[in-house]
User: Fold this.
Amino acid sequence: MVQKAKILLVDDRPENLLALEAILSALDQTLVRASSGEEALKALLTDDFAVILLDVQMPGMDGFETAAHIKRRERTRDIPIIFLTAINHGPHHTFRGYAAGAVDYISKPFDPWVLRAKVSVFVELYMKNVQLREQASLLRLQLEGGGHQPEAPSGDEGEPPGLLAELSARLAAVEEQAEALSKQLGDSADSAAVATAAHLERKLTGLRRALDALEPGAGGGGSSAQVPSQN
Assistant:
């Protein structure tokens, strides 16, 4: 079953949330509403989100203050934030949005197709990271449980070849998808998305090296291979 990404929509006006849901419904992901900055921070305590669409002008805690809280939390600081605002106060206002940690700053009314395309990029990057974490988890379990595995065929002291082949095939699929995404972003002006994709590729490289070290004849021995950090 394919896991769906969660997208957090933050706006104090119900009609704006309804409009965002209509625009993003075609992505077939899980859309979560929050009508205030406080409600958004509460949702972020328990759920993981691929991207946050955050209205700037809200009563009480505005978008800038909400973003500052999000970026201070270790759990949520890396979640991409797209600011949405009905009023364009010029370059200074836009700069404040980027300084608060936003990856993009869009003025209303905006092109629905453009917004959906931007959100889809971050959803795809998020899904690739989820797959990468799953592969790393499988590899870590294999390394930690090496002493409890059935005996390998005579003459082999490494990991069971069937599981290694499965892990390698799964990782290869993620690598192929990540490469295609990087090519898609090659000419993109969205530097945050490009940087995130590059970070994903670096993690994939580290995981591939760890997996290769487990292959029979690699020389390092399966028990000494290190699984790269997924932070």
About this structure: Residues 68 and 100 are 6 Å apart (CA to CA).
